[in-house]
Amino acid sequence: MKCQRCQENEATVHYTQVLNGQKTEIHLCEQCAEQEGYMDFSNDNMSIHQLLTSMFPFDQNVNQQQSVSPKHQLACDRCGTTYQQFRKRGKFGCSNCYHAFEAYLNPIFRRVHSGNTKHVGKIPKRVGGNLHKQRELEQLQAKLQQLINDEAFEDAAQVRDQIRKLKEELQENQDGDA
Amino acid sequence: MSLQNFINDAISPWMNTEGLDNDIVLSSRIRLARNFEQVSFPTSGDQEALSKVLEYMQQEFDQQSYKDFKQLQLVKMKDLKPVEKRVLVEKHLISPSLAEKDETGAALISKSEQASIMINEEDHLRIQLYYPGFELSEALNKAQELDDWFEEKIRFAFDENRGYLTSCPTNAGTGLRASVMMHLPALAMTNQINNLIPEINKLGLVVRGIYGEGSEAQGQLYQISNQMTLGKSEEDIVEDLKSVVKQVIENERRAREWIMEQLGIQLEDRIFRSYGILANSRIIQSKEAAKCLSDVRLGIDLGLIKDVSKTILNELMVLTQPAFLQQYANKHYHQMSAMYSVLI
Ligand SMILES: [Zn+2]
Ligand SMILES: [Zn+2]
Question: Where is the UVR domain (chain A) (predicted)?
Answer without folding.
Answer: 134-169
